[in-house]
Design goal:
Helix 1 packs parallel to helix 2 and helix 1 packs across helix 5. Helix 1 links the parallel strand 1 and strand 2. This protein has 160 residues and is an alpha/beta fold. The two termini are 19 Å apart. A four-stranded parallel β-sheet has the order 2-1-3-4. 38% of the residues lie in helices and 14% in strands. It has one domain: Response regulator (Rossmann fold), CATH 3.40.50. It has five helices and four strands.
Length: 160
């Protein structure tokens, strides 16, 4: 078998959006029967939450949708830009930070996850951290499902 494809999901603190996206991706590739062909992780731009579990609202959302998750927050490293094939940012600020952090000539394709939204391409995945309640986390989950389906569809059809 060829080398595994590798995807890394990034958000500001790695406790809300990127863990949800990682969990959704893991379920999608498992359901498609291709989970043995992928290595998947998530990380943060900043180091504020390194070592912590995701926000309790993110965990509740993942649990509601039967998405097991036990990773802890970590910060992106320069080596990630060589190790991963695809690094997904959640918004334009993440993308700007990734561009700034990426070593010159690194192999990873830096992509905004929202560009693969099957309903509204190019829409950012809004940070639900400061929302009251779980609605923002549910919205993040729903959007991640659409975006990841869109990305995997493009992979499958050879468009990426």
């Amino acid at each position: 078998m060829a080398d595994k494809r590798k995807a890394l999901f990034i958000c500001l603190g790695n406790i809300c959006r990127s863990p949800i996206a990682e969990a959704v991706f893991l379920k999608a590739i498992k359901d498609a029967g291709v989970n043995d062909q992928w290595e998947v992780d998530s990380a943060a731009i900043g180091g504020w939450h390194v070592g912590k579990k995701p926000d309790h609202r993110a965990l509740s959302t993942m649990e509601k949708h039967n998405l097991p998750y036990d990773n802890r927050a970590r910060q992106i490293k320069k080596a990630d830009f060589e190790n991963y094939d695809y690094i997904f940012g959640m918004d334009k600020e993440n993308m700007s930070d990734l561009e700034r952090l990426a070593p010159k000539g690194s192999k990873a394709k830096q992509l905004m996850l929202g560009d693969f939204d099957t309903e509204t391409p190019g829409k950012i995945i809004r940070d639900p951290y400061y929302d009251q309640g779980a609605d923002g986390f549910e919205q993040c989950y729903v959007q991640c499902v659409r975006c990841i389906a869109g990305f995997l569809g493009k992979i499958q059809s050879g468009q990426i």
